[in-house]
Amino acid sequence: MAVGKSIIRKEAWDKVTGRAKYTNDFKEPGMLHASLVTSPYAHARILSLEARRALAAPGVHAVVVGEGLPLTGEDMRDRPPIAVDKVRYYGEVVAVVVADTLAQAEQAARLVRVVYEPLPAVGSPREALKKGAPLLHEHLDRYEKNKTTHPEPGTNVAHRTKIRKGNIEQGFAESDVIVETSVSFAPSDHIAMETRCATAEIWPDGTIHISASSQSPFMIKKLLHAYFGEETGKVIVHTPLVGGAYGGKAPVQLELLAYLASKAVGGRKVSVWNSREHDMVTSPVHIGLEATVKIGATKDGLFKAMEILFLFDGGAYSDKAIDVSRAAAVDCTGPYHVENVFCDSLCVYTNRPYATPFRSFGHCEQAFAIERAIDELAQELQLDPWEVRRKNAIHPGHTTPTQVRLTKSNVGNMPACLDRLRELMHWDEWQRVEVDAYTVRAKGIGAGWKTSTIDTDASSGVILTFNSDGSVNVISGVVEIGTGTKTVLAQIVAERLKMDVDQVHVKMDIDTQTTPEHWKTVASRGTFMAGRAALAAADDAIRQLKDIAACVLRASPDDLEVGFGRVFLRDDPAIFLPIKDIAYGYKFPNGNAIGGQVIGHGHYILRRLTPLDPKTGAGKPGPEWGVCAEGVEIEFNRRDYTYRIVKAYAVIDAGKVLNPKAALGQAMGAMSMGLSFASREGFLFDKEQRVLNPQLRTYRPIRFGEHPEYIVEFVETPQIDAPYGARGIGEHGLIAMPAALANALSLAAGVPLNKLPLVPELIWRTQKGDSYGSV
Amino acid sequence: MVPFDFAYYRPQSITEATALFAALERDGKRPLYYGGGTEIITLSRLNLVRTAAVIDIKAIPECRALDVGHDSLVLGAALSLAELEEANPFPLLTKAAREVADRTARNQITLGGNICGQIFYRETALPLFVAEADAIIAGPYGIRQCRFLDLFHQQLQLGRGEFVVQFKVDRAAATLPHFHRKRRKQGEVGYPLVTIVALKKDGTVRVALSGVCPFPFRSAEVEAHVNDRSRPVGERIQAAVDAFPRPILHDIEGSADYRLFVAAQLLEDMLGELGDRETV
Amino acid sequence: MEETTKRELVLSINGERRSIVARQSETLLFVLRDGLGLTGAKPGCLNGDCGACTVLVDGTPIKSCMMLAIETVDKDITTIEGLDDAPIQHAFVRHFAFQCGYCTPGFIMNAHALIERRPNADEATIQEWLESNICRCTSYQEIEAAVKEVLEAKKAKPTDP
Ligand SMILES: Cc1cc2nc3c(=O)[nH]c(=O)nc-3n(C[C@H](O)[C@H](O)[C@H](O)COP(=O)(O)OP(=O)(O)OC[C@H]3O[C@@H](n4cnc5c(N)ncnc54)[C@H](O)[C@@H]3O)c2cc1C
Ligand code: FES
Ligand code: FES
């Protein structure tokens, strides 16, 4: 019925007519506006802050500074919401100016005088780990943290995840070759087209009303409680449509500023809206990485051991970067069976913008390292890189790096993805051809997998209410960030209730007071968790409908079916009641009534997840592993080092495709993001670690016409637990793209390209043998 | 978003504009002539421009002129780059204009604004350099016409209160064989790594570049090397590159040595395309 | 704030005359959104780089974050709210040419102008126009399909002069 069809997203017409509203589209008279005063230094002591002139400027109501505020951070509380004493990254907030209009706030922000004493800035994880490197957090030992965070006081290590599986020495001893590869890339950004925005208002009754462009409206409630002691019941968060997120809107930052600003002006409504520049550097960014991978293998390419060091550039504050570094460790080997694994994944402090999940949550980063190493190994052994991957592909019966045994249900079909990719790409026909004196065509591939390392007690709830015409409303805490998840929920509900999906309405906005919680709209978990909750809610509604109908039809509920807008007798569908006649209870002809409004509810909580053992990493971090195989075909000019991405391929195990066109869109969008990241994105820093390109003028993502042809196919290996078997697909398109592009270009140019972004100058320099640093 | 306030004026004539400027200047308003306004607006937001008054020149008929005369083309400074592309009176200018910013932005960016703005690439100056165009300039003392190149030293040397009304291009020059190429760090939209424009007249190549230095330039010394047919192409190019003015840009778009590498290749492409590779 | 720089502007928007008091230095984008409640045009960068704020002025797409509202007096402004069932809107829906929808109003306005102004647009022209807008969600392939479909349909059914 509804599942498996390309149902058009429910909010489609709102979006093509300009009716769709995002946080910053809601304005009301009397609302105040904030402007952020940010640090021009990456590391400096704040000697003084003088706000008198700003306060005297026209329209200004308050200048909020950092003194006396609690430290914040989801895993470890290391970040003041507004810097005090010290700034640790370029763009860090030092004051918030609140005024009648945005123009006034911005004018006044320029009048805040801050005197800084610059300190030496730490520019990369390796630099940060050097002996004698300046320490970002002198009091790392004193920070409040959760049980799974392991900082190393006296160093710049915010957290270390250790994976110890098998016996690494033995693995290398059994290897014929050992290849070591190092890769790196600087932090970059999500650049959602909608910059982050939050408003806050505190009502006389003490309720705090927040509106936020956020993937985590429910987390905002919890954190306002954790940080400021506000009662969670008094915090009401509203999230309308979100204009792109990709992980970047999972952390809670501007919401805290809006709350503090509102408090400073007697509870009036204040809007904090990021400029593009602030959105890029002041708010959390896509993590950077320096990694070394050592693979030991037999002559015929069988992996025996992997030793991996991930040094994640978490930036100035750990926040969600710790989680990202852990997620990469959990799946550190890539989708391959490796018996002996030794991995240290560090979340390192540097004087750079602080990091947060980026679509694929540590996996495109991890895959770039592993998949480059595999290509180098294949080259060393003179083996076909596809063969090497195929030979080592993970499958049921194997164990993951954290020693979870894989089953047919909890892992997708990696060999099938690789096989199909090989066919689609005509891999065997050629991998590198010289078209003319300068033009080379080349192909590169990579594979990926991912589990979602989310909180072990994360849950999701769904409520279904009926309308008097028999149609249904779906109310879920999943935020509509563009993934179309709410439409898929409608499909799931329609399928279960056997009704037309047009009769299933979706409440798009979130209001935490009336919407059941969905932990966070991250990690491709919307369809799985909210989908399960939706099924449970549908079953609940079905039970209620049957109960009412059973009375009226004088039949056992067991003999009834719900579908096609009716409740009917299974063995005689001619005997039925329209749902619309019982959705609000049933009124007999004589006026007697039974039942009441049918309200279905359901929830889902992930089961049997466990934290990782701090010594070995053993543990069950996520419910299932989705897999993918991806490839890129490029045309490279050996004279001028320019290239064109001609085709991009992905084969993804979707479990079950619930909405084909939407799934395709998710996959292609993710691929585009991966190619853009790999080919042209990344922050450029000067020696003092100031970001030089915090604008779309100079930080240029892929544009129309620069896109390759996308070829995407899905394999369907159902995950038994998931709604209709569907696996998460929102991120997989991205995972192997950077690696595949680098592999293709390395083959074309004949030199290993292990840094991103892959701009022509990088290739030129690598071929010349120069190092390529920041300018 | 312009955080501060300014007053907006839209004079209908040149004399009205210059008189307004003088009056506003006397009042301490530090007025700016306003073409497409794209740079004034975007740099105001970043606190890189500040003024209390802008004088929009788009309603001045001369600034909007686009005349293809018998001997010369007249190009109003307030024509948008897109208008110039569409009318295509000067194909080399069309090519240079077409690579500036993006199409929608070019519906607003004016020729005068691109050349007189702070953003130093000023790519549409290049075709005007090699075509040896004249600039018609209005100011407090009236209107003057001068060779554009003579007045351009890293940027157009305008007196206080002056603005460019038009450019005049020799019609014959506009139809000469030419070459244009823009190379970016990556992709098809964005600032140049190197933009090169060349035109061949009477067997001599004229060449101008943007993106190499923090200003666009045409240099007699560089051209002398480029045209020195007594030497092999490789040497000509190397000598030309060595003669580039300094400093060579070394920034987020690319390093100095990479820019020189790209510039040398583009010079080679240019000589190849203009049929000027042989040594005599 | 010096009230003296505010002025009453009468703008012609989506076929209606709307009067508004605004600072002379206010951009069209802010006047549309905050002054007139037309929030379809989106701020994405306020720097001319992303195209989310694209609207039509006398049928020409412009980035409303870098045009003053006062410049548009006596001109016809069309925003996404003024499109009435345009073929490109249908094509965007059919081809799943958006996800979060934030870039969509700008993209649609630009594509609509392209279709109206250049019904015979070739590949190069399509790219030249549409590279003015950034979409972070889609792969652009969906947008390309939508735009080409409308152009093809238009070619197949030329309107009488
Ligand atoms: C998105 C974007 C991308 C860009 N990309 C490029 C690029 O790739 N290559 C490139 O070369 N440039 C690029 N630029 C720079 C652009 O060409 C300049 O910013 C130019 O100023 C814009 O023209 P305008 O008419 O809008 O100028 P305005 O904003 O009106 O004016 C800019 C300056 O020039 C002065 N001015 C304007 N007209 C005249 C005149 N007739 N006489 C004297 N002074 C005058 C003004 O007083 C002001 O100081 C880009 C700009 C943007 C916004
Ligand atoms: S907001 Fe106008 S171009 Fe980005
Ligand atoms: S649909 Fe989200 S940016 Fe285009």
TrEMBL record, chain A:
<dbReference type="Pfam" id="PF20256">
    <property type="entry name" value="MoCoBD_2"/>
</dbReference>
<dbReference type="InterPro" id="IPR037165">
    <property type="entry name" value="AldOxase/xan_DH_Mopterin-bd_sf"/>
</dbReference>
<keyword id="KW-0500">Molybdenum</keyword>
<keyword id="KW-0560">Oxidoreductase</keyword>
<dbReference type="InterPro" id="IPR036856">
    <property type="entry name" value="Ald_Oxase/Xan_DH_a/b_sf"/>
</dbReference>
<dbReference type="InterPro" id="IPR046867">
    <property type="entry name" value="AldOxase/xan_DH_MoCoBD2"/>
</dbReference>
<dbReference type="InterPro" id="IPR008274">
    <property type="entry name" value="AldOxase/xan_DH_MoCoBD1"/>
</dbReference>
<dbReference type="InterPro" id="IPR000674">
    <property type="entry name" value="Ald_Oxase/Xan_DH_a/b"/>
</dbReference>
<dbReference type="GO" id="GO:0016491">
    <property type="term" value="F:oxidoreductase activity"/>
</dbReference>
<protein>
    <submittedName>
        <fullName>Aldehyde oxidase</fullName>
    </submittedName>
</protein>
<dbReference type="Pfam" id="PF02738">
    <property type="entry name" value="MoCoBD_1"/>
</dbReference>
<dbReference type="Pfam" id="PF01315">
    <property type="entry name" value="Ald_Xan_dh_C"/>
</dbReference>
<dbReference type="InterPro" id="IPR016208">
    <property type="entry name" value="Ald_Oxase/xanthine_DH-like"/>
</dbReference>
<dbReference type="GO" id="GO:0005506">
    <property type="term" value="F:iron ion binding"/>
</dbReference>
From TrEMBL, chain B:
<protein>
    <submittedName>
        <fullName>Xanthine dehydrogenase</fullName>
    </submittedName>
</protein>
<dbReference type="GO" id="GO:0016491">
    <property type="term" value="F:oxidoreductase activity"/>
</dbReference>
<dbReference type="InterPro" id="IPR016169">
    <property type="entry name" value="FAD-bd_PCMH_sub2"/>
</dbReference>
<dbReference type="InterPro" id="IPR005107">
    <property type="entry name" value="CO_DH_flav_C"/>
</dbReference>
<dbReference type="Pfam" id="PF00941">
    <property type="entry name" value="FAD_binding_5"/>
</dbReference>
<dbReference type="InterPro" id="IPR016166">
    <property type="entry name" value="FAD-bd_PCMH"/>
</dbReference>
<dbReference type="InterPro" id="IPR051312">
    <property type="entry name" value="Diverse_Substr_Oxidored"/>
</dbReference>
<dbReference type="InterPro" id="IPR016167">
    <property type="entry name" value="FAD-bd_PCMH_sub1"/>
</dbReference>
<dbReference type="GO" id="GO:0071949">
    <property type="term" value="F:FAD binding"/>
</dbReference>
<dbReference type="InterPro" id="IPR036318">
    <property type="entry name" value="FAD-bd_PCMH-like_sf"/>
</dbReference>
<keyword id="KW-0560">Oxidoreductase</keyword>
<keyword id="KW-0274">FAD</keyword>
<dbReference type="InterPro" id="IPR036683">
    <property type="entry name" value="CO_DH_flav_C_dom_sf"/>
</dbReference>
<keyword id="KW-0285">Flavoprotein</keyword>
<dbReference type="InterPro" id="IPR002346">
    <property type="entry name" value="Mopterin_DH_FAD-bd"/>
</dbReference>
Automatic annotation (TrEMBL), chain C:
<keyword id="KW-0560">Oxidoreductase</keyword>
<dbReference type="GO" id="GO:0046872">
    <property type="term" value="F:metal ion binding"/>
</dbReference>
<keyword id="KW-0411">Iron-sulfur</keyword>
<dbReference type="GO" id="GO:0051537">
    <property type="term" value="F:2 iron, 2 sulfur cluster binding"/>
</dbReference>
<dbReference type="InterPro" id="IPR036010">
    <property type="entry name" value="2Fe-2S_ferredoxin-like_sf"/>
</dbReference>
<dbReference type="InterPro" id="IPR006058">
    <property type="entry name" value="2Fe2S_fd_BS"/>
</dbReference>
<dbReference type="Pfam" id="PF01799">
    <property type="entry name" value="Fer2_2"/>
</dbReference>
<keyword id="KW-0001">2Fe-2S</keyword>
<dbReference type="InterPro" id="IPR051452">
    <property type="entry name" value="Diverse_Oxidoreductases"/>
</dbReference>
<protein>
    <submittedName>
        <fullName>(2Fe-2S)-binding protein</fullName>
    </submittedName>
</protein>
<keyword id="KW-0408">Iron</keyword>
<dbReference type="GO" id="GO:0016491">
    <property type="term" value="F:oxidoreductase activity"/>
</dbReference>
<dbReference type="InterPro" id="IPR002888">
    <property type="entry name" value="2Fe-2S-bd"/>
</dbReference>
<dbReference type="InterPro" id="IPR036884">
    <property type="entry name" value="2Fe-2S-bd_dom_sf"/>
</dbReference>
<dbReference type="InterPro" id="IPR001041">
    <property type="entry name" value="2Fe-2S_ferredoxin-type"/>
</dbReference>
